[in-house]
Amino acid sequence: MPSLPRDLSLRLDAIGSPLPDPAPFRHAAVLAPILVEETPGDGPRLLIIERAGNLRSHPGQLAFPGGKPDPEDADLVATALREAWEEVALPPGRVTVLGRLNPVPVPTGYVIIPFVGLVDGPFVPTHAEAEVTAVLMPSLRRVSDPAVYRFAGEREWQGQRYELHEFQIHEPPLWGATARIVYDLLQRLDLAPARPPEAP
């Protein structure tokens, strides 16, 4: 089963490294929690939410806990930790934030900054029903399985090219910005499913 590399933090972007100005977009932050198994099983797991269907943005989609900054947030790390507490009752003190993944712009006008956090010991989420329909905790072994992965090509938006990934781990599947974040993480863990070779 997959295990976390000892140098995981070194494979991530530094938490405090400068971010480019997102204008005309605004920053948002998400937490990609990795839950470490204390007993034998499928190994480390991710925590992913299914957003409530009545939300104004991204209703019903799979996502990491997160959102836009509140005035009282000290920084984007604080935003990600606060949102994880509000959405799935993950105490900030239980999370060791190891670093960042690549920023992900989305059509709603935000650039998502994903932070990777390690959650030690058992954790039972309690989701806020107004925002979250369900909580998924797929293992890294499951999301890295080529049988659930589909590469859906490349697109260009706002002058930037990006790849489309899909993970059939739920209905609806994991796709869009969150799938790009998951694939980025899997690449840094040397677990990413292979993409089809480019045509000559």
Structure description:
With 200 residues, this protein is of the alpha+beta class. It is built from 4 helices and 11 strands; from the N terminus they run αβββββαββββαββα. It has helices at 8-11, 76-88, 140-143, 176-188; strands spanning 26-35, 45-46, 48-51, 62-63, 66-67, 95-100, 104-106, 110-119, 132-136, 149-157, 160-167. Strands 1, 2, 5, 6, 7 and 8 form a 6-stranded mixed β-sheet that branches. Strands 4-3-9 form a 3-stranded antiparallel β-sheet. A hairpin with a 2-residue loop joins strand 10 (149-157) and strand 11 (160-167). The longest helix has 13 residues, at 76-88. The protein is globular and about 45 Å long. The termini are far apart. The mean pLDDT is 88. InterPro entries: CoAse, NUDIX_hydrolase-like_dom_sf, NUDIX_hydrolase_dom. This is CoA pyrophosphatase.
Features:
200 residues, alpha+beta, 6-stranded mixed sheet, 3-stranded antiparallel sheet, 4 helices
Topology of helices and strands:
Blueprint: H1 8-11, E1 26-35, E2 45-46, E3 48-51, E4 62-63, E5 66-67, H2 76-88, E6 95-100, E7 104-106, E8 110-119, E9 132-136, H3 140-143, E10 149-157, E11 160-167, H4 176-188
Parallel strand pairs: 1-8
Antiparallel strand pairs: 1-2, 1-5, 3-4, 3-9, 6-8, 7-8, 10-11
